[in-house]
Amino acid sequence: MSQHLLLPLAILAISPIPGAFQDSALSPTKEEPEDLDCGRPEPSARIMGGSDSQPGTWPWQVSLHQGGGHICGGSLIAPSWVLSAAHCFVTNGTLEPAAEWSVVLGVHSYDGPLDGAHVRSVAAILVPDNYSGVESGADVALLRLASPARLGPTVRPVCLPRASHRFAHGTACWATGWGDVQEADPLPLPWVLQEVELRVLGEAACQCLYSRPGPFNLTFQLLPGMLCAGYPEGRKDTCQGDSGGPLVCKEGGRWFQAGITSFGFGCGRRNRPGVFTAVAPYEAWIREQVLGSEPGPAFPTQSPELQSGLPEPTDENCTIALPECGKAPRPGAWPWEAQVMVPGSRPCYGALVSESWVLAPASCFPGRISSDLPPRDLDHWRVMLPSRPRAERVARLVPHENASWDDASNLALLQLRAPVNLSVAPRPVCLPHPEHYFLPGSRCRLARWGHTEPVPGAGSLLEAELLGAWWCHCLYGRQGESVPPPGEPPLALCPAYQEEEVAGRCWNYSHWSLLCREEGTWFLAGIRDLPSDCLRPRAFYPLQTHGPWISHVTRGAYLEDQLSWDWGPEGEETETQTCPPHTEHGACGLRPEPALTGGLWPWLAEVHVAGERVCTGILVAPGWVLAATHCILRLGSTTVPYIEVYLGRAGASPLPQSHQVSRLVISIRLPRHLGLRPPLALLELSSRVEPSPSALPICLHPGGTPLGASCWVLGWKDPQDRVPVAAAVSILTPRLCHCLYQGILPPGTLCVLYAEGQEDRCEVTSAPPLLCQTEEGSWVLVGMAIRGSRDLFAAIGPEETWISQTVGEAHFLLPSGFPHWLPEGGDLCPPDMARASGSPRAALFLLLLTLLIQG
Ligand code: 4AZ
User: Fold this and answer.
1) Active site annotation includes 451
2) Omega of the bond leading into 426 within 30 degrees of 0 (cis)
3) For tag attachment on the chain, is the N or C end more exposed, with fewer CB atoms within 10 Å?
């Protein structure tokens, strides 16, 4: 044993890496002595293309154990030396003790006795001292065994490439390991060593792929000493647990180790090939570490004609793979639509998710969901796929284990007896990974799913736009619940339809799936069972939660990375949000992200009175709008005018994305007020409006002024174009208000003070409302403008009983804030203060000053 092997680890782990990319000064000028034969397995009857390897095919493959379990792969390069990846042994910058590790050699599977397998302890772990993390390169490690391995038919070293060795772009090589068979899907028992053929990707070809934003919108800069292998289309790759294992290529009858499995972005994803540590650049480093060890690793020379290799593709012929799933000639003509025909029942619609698997609701196959018996009559089942001349036969039905009790898991997978050739049709739909975030505003469609009745109405009724996660979650979830941020699967996906429901049509008795499009590619985003009313489904169970189960069962469903990352001007709002208070009638006062609606206020109504004027109205329940009486009913007029109400409008010219709703007013209700004309009127709509981003009732404030809220007068600047504008105001305390307008205010009047420069934002003839946004985020209606005034509002609170009794579903929040009643005795006010001044702001200033002095 040479002296340096006894030195402490820190001294051993020297790194001549800067020189590692040139030919080593240590390399012998003549051919190695042939004392160590390398890279030649004993001939065996190996079956290529399968994923289980045959015993003895990869005799240099070792399994590295820590704490009794497989952690990483490695390769035997000499009787006492194993090559692996640094990241297997370094945690938080610290090299783990060699004593914790053992090397298992000659193992093929963990099924039964490990014939020929033996274990060695590790005497030392050597890592280049410039190693800092996989993405910075130098992910290489050498393990010195405590005693030499026993070489035999299943234990042999691999050949190492010299620094000058070239593995040309396109070279077919093999990666091996016991790692996961897919992301988060461990190799099942009996843990047979897996092999996969991968092609070397030249630096330019690989950098071209990694320069395109992939998962999480990330790009990656490859570094010298890294090597890519795989395919632009993905699907074959190394994965977690394969790290440290070898990528070997056969040249002249010998297997050379070209790479060490290092890392990647996920496993088998499109345009994300595996990244390996290139072994050739580490010739000098390896030679230096093993110096004096006999026999050492073998570095046979490469034959000169191979060294020139294929010309490396340049940037111009950089081939990016496009999604193979989710392309449809036009919406509605779905190339993945599968009809499952079970004798004695109606056809069940599902979706083709791979060459051999169809996803459908488990409830289509009652009686089979929980039975473990293999159904014999699968023989008579048939699956119809688009553009296939004959029906497909079914080999297997795999229901989701929770299908019988969890509607969100109402799924089953059907395996076809023979895989179908994928082309324009049939073509599988894309499935989302669990971390997929469908952006608010995504274009979506309803598609047939399960037992479906004929589609009511026009195809455009199936069009939808996805609502923001906050809106969807808070509309259907519970108050105070926190909303899953982007990257966590949402509890529900909510489509907002582009066309209103057709009156009298019922969408009952049908399941639907929700398809959403990104960059022209369709994803199966959600599923929904029967709606409880006649309306189209408004919340879907997200499918992304089931991605891992679907890939586990199918081993090849088309899970596709998120393709759209345009978060819009609002940016990546990822802080945790909670849902504002609900009332017993559900959610109210939620304002969707402006990105979706172009600044819509879902409760703001245009009330068109007798075709001659437009008043502001506020939706207070699905069938009721509140407005100012003086704007609706002209003094002296005795007839009830013809009134139309429009919701979801942001101005006279409709926005392309807005969903406009209109209703007739069938009755006007006024509270009983002795003598005086009451300021508030309730308008009953001809039919209810369904909650949507353009029509959602506001919350009502039961009295006083909400504390800590920011308040606004919401109206429009110009009665012609009616683009909504909000002017920031403060609501004065009852005492200030009383003093400012001494003696002239009807009871229950609120006074506001506009923020600097905001007075003239809204015109007043349409009687704009006064709203506040509470600290929890809900919008509440506090008052409606009094005739002709910009500063005075009739409070909602005093009319709570009347509104609740008339409307039934009004969303009154629990009382909060300070009450609004007039203080006893007007003598607290300085005499005639308010009237003395021209402007309310100046008057208020004087008033405050006087009250302070009175103190
Ligand atoms: C890992 O975690 C790992 N697809 C190894 C290889 C790859 C990804 C992850 C490449 O060890």
Assistant:
1) no
2) yes
3) C
